[in-house]
Amino acid sequence: MTKIVEAAPRLTPAADGQAFRDAMARLASPTHIVTTAGQNGRAGLTATAVASVSDAPPTVLVCIEGNSRTLAAIAANGVFCINTLPGGSADLAETFAGRRGIEGEARFASARWGRLASGAPVLEQALAAFDCRLVAIREVATHRIVIGEVLALGGAGQGAGLIYRDRRFETV
């Protein structure tokens, strides 16, 4: 009889921020652009931490870094839209992630945008768009959990999607 011995998995303390970021980078996440609009114009960012909360009433959440200008605009405007990106839109995701050196209103020039109930920008090519009224913002560590009641839905609803995995965007 042969005995198989395997090495114990290497454990890394969860308190190590870099190890945590490296582990999270291995997860594939759908990619979204979160937008808002109000008296001071439009604002938006790329986000991967998005989830449903409830279907009665339809409610979603997105996690946003606490110092984000878009977060401040969402809080001021009271509305936002989560636009799920289709495959092939990595350049748009990079732009709204701040990796192209394009800021503010100029970020919106590279795509076509519409509006639904809230007035927040809705990406015309989005796979899904969740147009929301801000319900709450909760502080957790360095980020804020932004909770919204879905007022309207949009998007094409078909085709490949864009994910973020291993610190890069991919079409799946």
Description:
This protein has 172 residues and is mainly beta. The protein is 15% helix and 44% strand. The protein has helices at residues 17-25, 69-77, 90-96, and strands at residues 29-30, 32-38, 41-47, 50-55, 58-65, 79-84, 113-115, 121-123, 128-140, 143-154, 162-165, 168-171. The model has no long low-confidence stretch (mean pLDDT 94).
Main attributes of the structure:
12 strands; globular; 15% helix; mainly beta; three-stranded antiparallel β-sheet; seven-stranded antiparallel β-sheet; 3 helices; 172 residues
In short:
The protein has helices spanning 17-25, 69-77, 90-96, and strands spanning 29-30, 32-38, 41-47, 50-55, 58-65, 79-84, 113-115, 121-123, 128-140, 143-154, 162-165, 168-171. It has 172 residues and is mainly β.
Helix content: 10-25%
- Tell me the total number of β-strands: 12
Strand content: 35-45%
Largest sheet: 7 strands, antiparallel
Estimate the global geometry from the Cα principal axes: globular
Low-confidence stretches: none
Strand order of the largest sheet: 3-2-6-9-10-5-4
SS class: mainly beta
Intertermini distance: 45 Å
Q: Could you report the average pLDDT, rounded to the nearest whole number?
A: 94
Q: So how many helices?
A: 3
Structural Rg: 18 Å
Sequence of secondary-structure elements = HEEEEEHEHEEEEEE
Describe the SSE topology.
Layout (H helix, E strand, L loop, with lengths): L16 H9 L3 E2 L1 E7 L2 E7 L2 E6 L2 E8 L3 H9 L1 E6 L5 H7 L16 E3 L5 E3 L4 E13 L2 E12 L7 E4 L2 E4 L1
Antiparallel strand pairs: 1-11, 2-3, 2-6, 4-5, 5-10, 6-9, 7-8, 9-10, 11-12
